[in-house]
Amino acid sequence: MTSTRPTLTSRICNEIVAAADVPLSGEVLRAARQLFLDGVSVAVAGARLEEAPRVLLEHFEDPLTGNGGGTSASVLGLNRRLGTVPAALVNGASMHVLDFEPMWLPATHALSPALAPTLALGQALGASGAKMLKAMVLGIEIQGRLREAAGKLQSHELHFHPPGFVGPIGAAVAAGYLLDFDAGQYANAIGIAGSRCGGLFTNLGTMTKSSHCAYAAAMGLEAALLTRRGFTGTKTLFDPAPQSYGEAFYPRGFNGDELLNFGKPFRVVDPSYAIKIFPAKFSTHYAITAALMARPQISNITAIKAIRIQAADVPSSDRPHPASGLDGKFSLQYTAATALLDGNVGLASFTDDMLARPEIQALLAKMRVTLSREIPSIYTDGRHLDLEVEMNDGQLISTRCERPRGSWGAPPITEEEHHAKARDCLATWLAPESIDRFVEGCDQIEELDAATVSALLDLASTGGHPTC
Q: Would you say residue 188 lies in a domain?
């Protein structure tokens, strides 16, 4: 007799449908507004300041590529329009390339894989601000539940970069909501997206790192669009099976039942997220904070004899000789040196010229980093970083960072501080009056109709400049 018991994946997809029927309100709505503003403003700055989004745009506009057709979606910060899938890809890269988007618990980059496809498809379909916010929240939610399904993995235990193996599924769910999917369609789109997962840590520090989120956004969106056309994939991606998604990406096993908690509550409020105040890998925020704590005690930077850092074992963060300013975003050594020398770490800190400064190179030569597995790499499990500066006269200056600003258990980033971050990012492209208009629109995004949302996205694309 054939069993009619619902599969785990179908039960999860029913939970997605149920959660999608509940209007956003209260803290979920407040968080969604903040994330929307953060994502788009950071994407504008990423497109203006980094080369990767421009290269991707040129790639999709090249006749040899042949897949940039269509003008239904705005490309943020680059004054162009593309079809939905390439627009989601370029915007996803722009949103992630600065490493300035929020961090999540367990660690991943859930915003760009959810928001980039939402913007592209939502604009093409004529979705309201409220519908876009809901799509984004749902896409973030599935990624958080998938990370929870891995258990408490330390950074060195991960085989794949998390947005590469949860992001495509998040994008498929976000797009599925905009396409009014039922549970069966969600399951099919998730199944297709499962075969689009990957992302290797070895590419951190290169343009390809931003493409992990970019391709997650695009491939998940494509999975939903293919589902709409009847293209088939497995509808049991989350169910136990040999050579399954769980076996491929979860080294300690896959607890699929965790996904049945979808939206109970939404992860944008519990455990929430960390808004970044430094445009660099979150692991380096510990080094930056410790260095900023030490700096007032150092009267002469040139009198430093040695700098010693002991940190959690996050292999990608030990980069004694960054190859570029972009690579410096992932280096404990470079970020600590910049904080010590300049007293701040911001958008202008990660250029090749800033890396090449003799003062920075001198500090890098004095750095010694030890990664210890005795220090947890999970943000809320006692993670910390110790920094010791030894001066030529023998003085020792020691600091410890346990929780960077904005992270779990630390003082939160205020709305004023977040608006300042967004305005700083938007100022790379928009005039002051356009920045005011954009921020005000995002602060009431759930009240805006489709035409007004599209106009805001066009503003973020053109910067108020003549359309190319």
A: yes
